[in-house]
Amino acid sequence: xxxxxxxxxxxxxxxxxxxxxxxxxxxxxxxxxxxxxxxxxxxxxxxxxxxxxxxxxxxxxxxxxxxxxxxxxxxxxxxxxxxxxxxxxxxxxxxxxxxxxxxxxxxxxxxxxxxxxxxxxxxxxxxxxxxxxxxxxxxxxxxxxxxxxxxxxxxxxxxxxxxxxxxxxxxxxxxxxxxxxxxxxxxxxxxxxxxxxxxxxxxxxxxxxxxxxxxxxxxxxxxxxxxxxxxxxxxxxxxxxxxxxxxxxxxxxxxxxxxxxxxxxxxxxxxxxxxxxxxxxxxxxxxxxxxxxxxxxxxxxxxxxxxxxxxxxxxxxxxxxxxxxxxxxxxxxxxxxxxxxxxxxxxxxxxxxxxxxxxxxxxxxxxxxxxxxxxxxxxxxxxxxxxxxxxxxxxxxxxxxxxxxxxxxxxxx
Length: 413
Description:
Largest sheet: 9 strands, mixed
CATH class of the largest domain: Alpha Beta
Number of domains: 2
Oligomer: single chain
CATH superfamily of the largest domain: Spore Coat Polysaccharide Biosynthesis Protein SpsA, Chain A
């Protein structure tokens, strides 16, 4: 039997401005669901056994219980790091010989998990690793695995600082592993997870499964934008859920999802792909366009334009606002005539920001990133935010401010 273990106790790090106190990055929302939903659903769609979830904050357990397909065994993490999380889970693993270890902050297709499990059961190796094509721009933020020509793992390298230290062929670790429970013995002796896998590779076969489909590790704000984009690309048609109210003069171009009890006012234009959650308000003459993810209880004021932006729940924008290529935390208020600039200088390359065509099918691609505005902020009317500006959580910006990257402005609310 293979028993899933979902690790969801890690710190928010680069997402800290978006995550309220005593909350987890795993419960940030993407298309109406917490980040945790995506790996949990993918794993449970393939494996029918009880699922162990290791968490630090109770919001993770609450959300997991909402969406779980199988009996859930939740344990609060003791200590720090992946190794401590595995040792925390070990008390629930006496009834299995193998675990499917999964990071709880990766948006992935269940087909990848099916291939991982299918390969492991067919080959019966000591362990099986999901691997991805190496993206040398971001490999330093992940781990790498060197393989032989038959796809057997030879060595795992954690977050390599240089490609020069890696032997071809190599791939990126995908954050999903089928491992024997005996690996716990290695970790209890003080070895890291990487060291433990390398010991398995020395003494037995460690198989790899290649995957190049939907896979996004939610570690940076740009990852939220990319996840929303790729998930929205899978939507088709217009879905209007119960008791949503849409005025006759509003225009909706598919694909679009409109949540329950949402109101779309006169002359608003929704140009998909777009997701709008429950109990949202879209004001008159507003323009919500491609790859926007507007979560529950968000209010968009009249004559406001939103493009390729993720807005967390309970946020309010006044009228005549422009939000482009931005991520907005929950419980934030954005005053009227606020503008986010989004065309990055050529020398700026924020972590894991992907290039996309400006106007498909044009061949012109640009890196664009607007503002990252933390939770519980107040952005005064008429403020201009330069590209790649991050506003920390709980900050108030005075009306008429001009905020550039790195400039300290505003005060804590």
